[in-house]
Design goal:
The complex is a heterodimer of chains A (286) and B (241). Chain A is built from nine helices and two strands. Chain A is an all-alpha fold and 286 residues long. Chain A has one domain (52-279). In chain A, helix 4 (104-142) runs antiparallel to helix 9 (250-283). Chain B has helices at 40-47, 72-79, 97-109, 113-126, 142-154, 172-187, 199-205, 231-237, and strands at residues 2-11, 14-24, 29-33, 55-60, 63-64, 82-85, 160-164, 191-195, 208-213, 216-221. In chain B, helix 3 packs parallel to helix 5. The longest helix of chain B has 16 residues, at 172-187. Classes of the chains: A mainly alpha (286), B alpha/beta (241). At the A-B interface, helix 5 of A face helix 3 of B. The structure holds adenosine-5'-triphosphate and magnesium ion. The site of magnesium ion (MG) has 4 residues of chain B, from helix 1.
């Protein structure tokens, strides 16, 4: 007797198909979120005008910069300090085999400024700020607050999205510079305490590595990282706003929107990072 | 001024409005009553063009809402003439009471700050919240939030105000005060649609009462409707038929 209570054996093929479709589902949803994000980005750019300088808007912007940026400084400092130490340790041990520890300063500083600084900051902001933004706007969406803005004919993009995007576009680069500095310092601690590199040598190597061409008064490598950070900041805020504002179905929907926002922005950040790195090596040859 | 003609609406295949028709004339205070979940809030959201009727017509101040729902200019023009008090308040939670009430004046009408100040203070006085203007929504009781929402709806001085449960969660004295306010606006020519479960409030403000149930108006009439013995009225009031 084949009763329905008996669990059906899960065929390997069926299981693979299930995993396959869920992968496709994830990718499809992320593409969907990205599409909404692009539309929202265009709407946001259209609204970057003198009204941003109104007193109430500036206050709103300052609040967002505080919540999104200033409050993240401690975690950015801690993570980048450890990443700097790890970078130094990892490369130092390898370089030591060839008697080349002198180069630690060069490698740590360039890696921090070009790659690690912006990426660490971006991922921390996705987790700490992007998720909070998505949940905040998601809660507004499920409790009629966005509809209330529409009915009052308050432009929700101007009122909610513009300050959040501008705040993240400003704060992500600032936090990245902090991460660069702290990471390089973390690297120097390991280099001098554990790998026998003298402090002045590390410092000289760092300065040498970062000297040279400058863009907008920044050393080239720092500029590359800051530009990435700017793009990451905009991406995180836009994705969070776009997914949050489309949340439906109460608390559960807010949770789902938050999860989607984190997933989509991490994906976008690593992809954009790869594209930008490729572009800079193409455009700004060593 | 407001005309519903045979309006149908459903959510996820579940019908909510099934041939809803009614009229609200200029200057009237129309009270819409009905059991929970009968579609009263949904009806108000059709008036402001949040929902588009699946079938039938909603005409507000001469504008066919359904036809113009994707026409931002017409929709904004219409919405600027309407104040809507949301059932849950729908306040912006990081703005204090003053800034919440000032929101439509600042962000939508873009008035001067001194004009905003006099209008906001005036509105807060009307709902007896002058002393709480610095508080955040999280520091208010449900009834206070409701009054802030009311102040925010009337601060733009719209000719049409829609109230979704204006007295729910208020003590009797405060309910009476809000009812007086609604009557006062009515007497100054504001057209009102009041959705409420509160029979006292209905008696105080209504120039006409309708009972919405099972997706359409079951019966309508003047205040005496509530003392009559129409089955829908008795059912709504919970009296055995
Ligand atoms: N956006 C929506 N999506 C799905 N269902 C909805 C939506 N809006 C309303 N409904 C459903 O429509 C029905 C009517 O809802 P509505 O809020 O209009 O009722 P109501 O008469 O205002 O009730 P109450 O007196 O409790 O406020 C409910 O069953 C509700 O679940
Ligand atoms: Mg309701």
């Amino acid at each position: 007797m084949s009763s329905t209570a008996e669990p059906a054996p899960v065929g390997a093929l069926a299981e693979t198909a299930r995993v396959g479709t869920s992968w496709i589902g994830h990718i499809r949803r992320s593409l969907d979120d990205t599409g909404h994000g692009v539309a929202l980005l265009l709407a946001t750019i259209q609204r970057l005008d003198h009204k941003l300088l109104k007193r109430s808007n500036l206050r709103n912007l300052a609040d967002q910069m505080y919540a999104g940026g200033i409050l993240s400084i401690p975690i950015v400092v801690l993570v980048s300090f450890f990443m700097g130490m790890v970078l130094s340790l990892q490369t130092g041990v390898e370089l030591g085999k060839f008697g080349q520890q002198d180069l630690i300063g060069t490698i740590v500083s360039v890696a921090m400024c070009r790659e690690m600084g912006p990426l660490i900051t971006g991922i921390i902001l996705v987790a700490a700020v992007g998720s909070a933004l998505a949940a905040e706007l998601g809660t507004m969406s499920v409790s009629d607050e966005l509809i209330a803005l529409d009915v009052m004919t308050v432009d929700r993009t101007r009122f909610l999205v513009v300050p959040r995007v501008v705040a993240m576009a400003l704060m992500c680069p600032i936090l990245t510079i902090i991460a660069d500095i702290v990471g390089i310092f973390g690297g120097s601690v390991i280099a001098t305490e554990r790998l026998g590199v003298s402090g002045p040598l590390y410092t000289n190597r760092t300065i040498e590595a970062l000297r040279g061409e400058t863009f907008l008064t920044m050393p080239k490598d720092v500029f590359v990282g800051v530009l990435k950070a700017f793009v990451f900041g905009v991406t995180i805020a836009i994705v969070a706003c776009a997914t949050g504002m489309r949340a439906t179905n109460g608390a559960q929907g807010v949770g789902e929107a938050t999860r989607r926002s984190v997933r989509t922005s991490i994906l976008l950040i690593v992809i954009i990072n790869y594209i930008l790195t490729g572009m800079f090596f193409g455009l700004l040859p060593e | 001024m407001i005309e519903f003609k045979d309006v149908f609406q459903s959510f996820g295949g579940r019908p909510v409005l099934r041939g809803l028709s009614f009229n609200v004339k200029d200057g009237e205070c129309f009270v819409l009553m009905g059991p929970s979940g009968s579609g009263k809030s949904t009806t108000l959201l059709h008036i402001v063009g949040v929902y588009k009727a699946r079938r039938g017509e909603v005409v507000v101040q001469g504008v066919d809402v359904g036809k113009n729902i994707d026409n931002p200019d017409v929709l904004v023009g219409l919405r600027r003439k309407i104040g809507l008090v949301f059932q849950g308040g729908a306040l912006v939670n990081w703005l204090n009471v003053y800034d919440n009430v000032a929101l439509p004046l600042r962000e939508a009408l873009e008035l001067e700050e001194n004009e905003i100040e006099s209008r906001v203070n005036d509105a807060l006085e009307k709902v007896l919240l002058s002393n709480d203007s610095e508080k955040l929504p999280s520091e208010l009781s449900g009834g206070m939030r409701k009054r802030v929402a009311l102040a925010r709806a009337l601060v733009t001085r719209p000719p049409l105000i829609l109230y979704d449960e204006p007295t729910a969660g208020l003590d009797p004295a405060m309910s009476a005060q809000i009812a007086r306010l609604i009557v006062d606006f009515s007497q100054h020519g504001v057209t009102s649609v009041v959705v409420t479960h509160d029979v006292d409030c209905a008696r105080r403000v209504a120039s006409r009462i309708a009972i919405l149930s099972k997706g359409k108006i079951q019966v309508e009439g003047d205040k005496s409707l509530l003392d009559g013995n129409h089955p829908s009225v008795l059912e709504f009031l919970g009296h055995p038929a």
